[in-house]
Design brief:
By secondary structure, the chain is an all-alpha fold. The chain has two domains: 3-59; 65-183, Orthogonal Bundle (Multiheme cytochrome fold), CATH 1.10.3820. 60% of the residues lie in helices and 0% in strands. It is built from ten helices and no strands. It has helices spanning 3-25, 30-59, 62-65, 72-77, 86-92, 101-105, 110-130, 145-152, 156-159, 170-176. α1 (3-25) packs antiparallel against α2 (30-59). It is elongated.
């Protein structure tokens, strides 16, 4: 949704509300007045819902995540020529959607993962604008294998070893969390310039 479309939508909404206000003030039938009141409640509600959907889709983009100076080096790490870096190899080889890579790789599966990501994002925005960002950014909690397994967990290459010499129990240990994916794949972002 572009800014032009939003501006046109807002102008139509203001015009519609002005007409409805005039209808309410005029001596008209009860039906017209009831329709006007319902429309004055429904139109802003629909507009608010549209803006929430738009904001949610924008906040999932890499460009949003890297718009803060604290995240600049993480954005650059997506373009580093280093196959050991998980972020760069996934981003450059299109293993994830390049527009939403940050969101995909930092959000656990399911509704609770979505809500958790939004709450963490609100915390980060609060710290960015009203606090002091730490010199070195760290994950609040250890990186969850569930994030990796939502894509890799049922992949044939993963289940068959994918070029690794997996012990029989490794996949079970990863699924139960006894072992972290980052124990072996320890370079999530290559932050060196």
């Amino acid at each position: 949704m572009s800014v032009t479309i939003l501006a046109v939508f807002a102008a139509v909404a203001v015009l519609f509300l002005a007409v409805l206000t005039r209808v309410i003030r005029s001596p008209s039938t009860g039906f017209v007045r009831s329709f006007a009141v319902v429309a004055m409640v429904l139109l802003p509600s629909v507009w608010l819902l549209a803006m929430l959907v738009y904001a949610d889709s924008e906040m999932r983009k890499v460009s949003f995540c890297t718009s803060c100076h604290e995240m600049d080096s993480y954005g650059r790490s997506l373009h580093v020529d280093d196959d050991e870096s998980l972020s760069a190899s996934h981003y450059q080889n299109h293993r994830v959607d390049t527009k939403t890579a940050c969101y995909v790789c930092h959000t656990e599966p399911g509704l609770l993962g979505y809500v958790d990501a939004k709450l963490r994002g609100l915390h980060d925005v609060r710290v960015h604008y009203f606090g002091k960002a730490p010199e070195e950014l760290k994950l609040v909690e250890p990186y969850s294998n569930a994030v990796c397994l939502k894509c890799h967990g049922e992949a044939k290459t993963f289940l068959e070893g994918g070029g690794h010499q997996y012990p029989e129990t490794l996949i079970d240990e990863l699924k139960t969390g006894e072992m972290s994916c980052l124990d072996c794949h320890d370079i999530a972002h290559s932050l060196e310039d």
